[in-house]
Amino acid sequence: MLPGQEVQIFTLSNNQGVEVRIINYGGIIVSINVPDRNGKIADVVLGHDSLAGYLTRSCYFGALCGRYANRIAGGRFRLHGVEHQLATNNGSHHLHGGLRGFDKVIWIADARDDALKLAYLSRDGEEGYPGNLSVTINYSLTDDNDLRIEYFATTDKDTIINLTNHSYFNLATTRTVLDHQVTIHADAFTPIDDTLIPTGELRSIAGTPMDFNSATTIGARINTDDLQLRNAGGYDHNFVLRAGENILREVAEVYEPDTGRVLTVLTTQPGMQFYSGNFLNGSIVGKNGRPYIKHFGLCLETQHFPDSPNHPNFPSTVLRPGERYHHVTVFKFSVR
Ligand code: BGC
């Protein structure tokens, strides 16, 4: 953000009393107010009370991540034989777009009744990426409580792209997410090393603590003596979603038994990073003075697989001139 730039806040609301607030700094979703099974409305995402919090501490709360969400090993990749070096901001790796990713830029906003369009032109060379990349995000809210996020981009040079939203959900709002019940429609995940870079393997979830095909609480197996859980301090893994890419289909559900709140996730993306807030350690005091302790939020980051540019067996993240990047993710809220 540059001095003198103004940050605006927008509200999407519907006839169910659901309200979503978004700022044009980082395209950050700052609040999602939804009812529980008794109609009690509460804010189910982590964040800060004021803009200052978002400017000074970056946990990517609610933010748009790009150009490349998640990690690229060593910040390096080759495209047509040319090596590109990206900014590194996570040890020796590139994470969520680099030092000044899409979570830290001002987007041009265009608000309609039930939708907010955000646009950003990422210049050739920004954070080391090739090509001028023109990105548009459309946030909208329906009367069925669907928060729909639509991502579009075009480029003038071959480049790579992987966009997501990094909301941390807590459907209970007052304690960790360990009792949240999670279902993920996936048969495989991408194992990681101890710096959270995929090894390149697609490994079956069968018989492992990664199997969420039937609803399981996050806490049930998170402390299992398992190398993958140890590498990440919990869940911080990309799931290979069933039924492939480009079809908008249900991929995950989160149910919180006390409040009855349900979050259903639909996406056109091939992968989803399930992150159980392992790096939260209480040092960030968020909304309402609440310290965000370990596992206080969970992320369901629909996206392509981390470090795809370095793994030819992963779905491609290359975008070429004349092509249009287009993905949709829906966060649907209900009760049971
Ligand atoms: C990553 C985590 C990281 C978190 C916040 C997630 O997408 O997978 O490893 O700590 O974002 O940066």
How does this structure look, described?
4% of the residues lie in helices and 38% in strands. The strands form seven sheets. Strands 10-11-12-13-26-22-21-16-19 form a nine-stranded antiparallel beta sheet, with no helix packed on it. The protein is mainly beta. It is globular. The structure holds beta-D-glucopyranose. The site of beta-D-glucopyranose (BGC) has 9 residues, from strand 23.
Descriptors:
single chain; 336 residues; mainly beta; 9-stranded antiparallel beta sheet; 4% helix; globular; binds beta-D-glucopyranose
The whole-number mean of residue pLDDT values reads 97
Helix- and strand-based class? mainly beta
Catalogue the ligands: beta-D-glucopyranose
- Please describe the biggest sheet, giving its number of strands, its sense, and whether it closes into a barrel: 9 strands, antiparallel
Q: Radius of gyration over alpha carbons?
A: 19 Å
What is the helical fraction, as a range of percent? Answer: under 10%
Low-confidence stretches: none
By DSSP, the count of extended strands is 26
Q: Report the end-to-end length measured between terminal Cα atoms.
A: 42 Å
What is the chain-wise order of helices and strands?
EEEEHEEEEEEEEEEEEEEEHEEEEEEE
How would you describe the shape? globular
Number of helices: 2
Sheet-strand content, in percent, reads 35-45%
Spatial arrangement of strands, main beta sheet: 10-11-12-13-26-22-21-16-19
